[in-house]
UniProtKB/TrEMBL annotation:
<keyword id="KW-0548">Nucleotidyltransferase</keyword>
<protein>
    <submittedName>
        <fullName>Putative nucleotidyltransferase with HDIG domain</fullName>
    </submittedName>
</protein>
<dbReference type="Pfam" id="PF12627">
    <property type="entry name" value="PolyA_pol_RNAbd"/>
</dbReference>
<dbReference type="GO" id="GO:0042245">
    <property type="term" value="P:RNA repair"/>
</dbReference>
<comment type="similarity">
    <text>Belongs to the tRNA nucleotidyltransferase/poly(A) polymerase family.</text>
</comment>
<keyword id="KW-0460">Magnesium</keyword>
<dbReference type="InterPro" id="IPR006675">
    <property type="entry name" value="HDIG_dom"/>
</dbReference>
<keyword id="KW-0808">Transferase</keyword>
<dbReference type="Pfam" id="PF01743">
    <property type="entry name" value="PolyA_pol"/>
</dbReference>
<dbReference type="GO" id="GO:0008033">
    <property type="term" value="P:tRNA processing"/>
</dbReference>
<keyword id="KW-0479">Metal-binding</keyword>
<keyword id="KW-0692">RNA repair</keyword>
<dbReference type="GO" id="GO:0046872">
    <property type="term" value="F:metal ion binding"/>
</dbReference>
<keyword id="KW-0067">ATP-binding</keyword>
<keyword id="KW-0819">tRNA processing</keyword>
<dbReference type="InterPro" id="IPR003607">
    <property type="entry name" value="HD/PDEase_dom"/>
</dbReference>
<dbReference type="Pfam" id="PF01966">
    <property type="entry name" value="HD"/>
</dbReference>
Length: 492
């Protein structure tokens, strides 16, 4: 590969090269950009190493760009970052590192290019291309990284035990790169992951979950999870998932291995969507099966209620793993809770009310739910899979008909708490909540439509049954209060 010609195609490298020469600093593009260049993967992140001050080089590049470029400096780390057009450039002086046993934060000293390449995590990330005019485009590959790229191998430049003990996050990164690139981890390197797996405990959960999410978003995430499992890392970072592994047999009856079933569901859903949180829903949809597993001599193994218990486990898992406790978590929790519901709707005699309830409960996430349900069909019997998928087609047809007729997605009953309180002259109370539920249930059951003409008389009837006296009768739906300009702007 002619790196000189490739780098000459973009002015940014000539700009960096000229700046390095003006400062008389040996300058190199290193790491991931070089790797991706060889793999023909697009990348706009460039790491630049110089023998000297990376901050000084960044300031010179910014000055020579003539674009009023801002330099963000991090003096404690000796690094600087600038954005130039659509490039993100990070500059650092070459350094060598040493580690203490109880921390992954290195003691850093100035070093040579060789020192800097020695500290890199893997051979495929230890590549450097010189940018100075005298040797522009010359590859420096002391550990055979190009050959490892050709062989599709992840390998550490130095002793893997030292590499992983020094910075245990590199074990996660090894598996992440293998999963993203579909590479193998070299046997000695993988054995070192197994030996050092418990060192992952000194790494922050935020850094671990960042790597885990990248594995989840890889093309075939089951590959990464299998490496995490067999590399003994998964039991430290995600024990709930390890608990899914294994098959118990009793009286000749066994259940499927829910760990490998979950990985199959995850792969299935990854073919349909690159949404991280939908993939998390796939990972967690059966997470409560170990806790709900029961054996009955006549019917075998059951996991009754695993969807509800699983939904209750989601917040704790997200909290423990430092995942966001916001609408993303609630989305995953909702799908875990509802993932069995569509399966119950495959019967021919299913009522519209059951469809209404699913549409109401799923709201705008109904398509994501159906995607998860389809991914959950993992039988080895192709005819059975085909039959289930056809049944889901019928369910979706019924859902479309009911949705078009009743407009129930994320619907709000026409009777509000304010109307109830005004009608019966009562304060906020349990009675108000009970009345709202009765009206909502009647709409979902199809007893009444979600119109004021139907719902208000029903409200009066239920209130009478509860011995509430009417304080005010509405002849028509009260006009909603006018929106302020600020509220209208927020909605827009």
């Amino acid at each position: 590969m002619n790196f000189k010609d490739i780098l000459n195609q973009d002015k940014v490298f000539n700009l960096i090269a000229r700046s390095g020469d003006e400062l008389d600093l040996p300058t190199y593009v290193v790491g991931g950009y070089v790797r991706d260049l060889i793999l023909k993967r697009p990348s706009k992140d460039i790491d630049i190493v110089c023998i000297g001050s990376g901050i000084q080089l960044a300031e010179k590049v910014a000055q020579n760009s003539h674009k009023n470029t801002t330099v963000n400096t991090f003096k404690n780390f000796g690094t600087a970052m600038i954005r130039l057009d659509d490039w993100e450039l990070e500059f650092v002086g070459a350094r060598k590192e040493s580690y203490r046993a109880n921390s992954r934060k290195p003691i850093v000293e100035n070093g040579t290019l060789e020192d800097d390449q020695n500290r890199r995590d893997f051979t495929i990330n230890a590549l450097a291309i010189q940018l100075n005019a005298s040797n522009f485009g010359e590859l420096v590959d002391p550990f055979g990284g190009v050959e490892d790229i050709k062989k599709k191998i992840i390998r550490t430049p130095l002793d893997p035990d030292i590499t992983f003990s020094d910075d245990p996050l590199r074990m996660m990164r090894a598996i992440r790169f293998a999963s993203q690139l579909n590479f193998d981890i070299e046997p000695d390197t993988f054995d070192a992951i197994i030996r050092n797996a418990d060192r992952i405990k000194i790494v922050s959960k935020e850094r671990i979950v960042d790597e885990l999410n990248k594995i989840i978003l890889s093309p075939i995430p089951s590959y990464g999870f299998n490496l995490l499992f067999h590399g003994q890392l998964l039991k430290h970072i995600f024990p709930e998932m390890v608990n899914l592994h294994g098959v118990e047999r009793r009286d000749g009856k066994g259940h499927k291995d829910n760990f490998y079933h979950t990985l199959k569901v995850l792969d299935n859903i990854s073919k349909a969507s690159d949404d991280l949180w939908l993939r998390w829903a796939a990972i967690l949809h059966d997470i409560a099966k170990p806790a709900t597993k029961r054996f009955h001599p006549k019917i075998g193994w059951t996991f009754h209620g695993h969807e509800d218990k699983g939904a209750r486990m989601v917040p704790r898992i997200f909290r423990n793993m430092k995942l966001p406790l916001n609408e993303k978590m609630k989305f995953v929790q909702k799908l875990v809770r509802l993932h069995l519901r569509p399966i119950a709707l495959v019967k021919k005699d299913i009522t519209d009310s059951a469809i209404r309830r699913l549409l109401y409960d799923a709201g705008d996430d109904v398509e994501a739910l159906m995607t998860l349900c389809r991914a959950d069909i993992t039988s080895k019997d192709d005819r059975r899979v085909k039959r289930y998928l056809e049944n889901f087609d019928l369910v979706e047809e019924k859902m479309a008909i009911v949705e078009e007729k009743d407009q129930l997605r994320n619907f709000q009953p026409i009777i509000t708490g304010e109307i109830i309180m005004e009608t019966f002259g009562i304060e906020p109370s349990k009675e108000v909540g009970d009345l709202k539920i009765r009206v909502r249930e009647a709409i979902l059951e199809g007893e009444i439509t979600n119109t004021f003409e139907d719902a208000y008389p029903f409200l009066l009837k239920v209130g009478q049954e509860m011995e509430l006296s009417v304080a005010k009768r509405f002849e028509s739906l009260p006009t909603p209060p006018e929106e302020s300009e600020e509220t209208s702007a927020q909605k827009a």
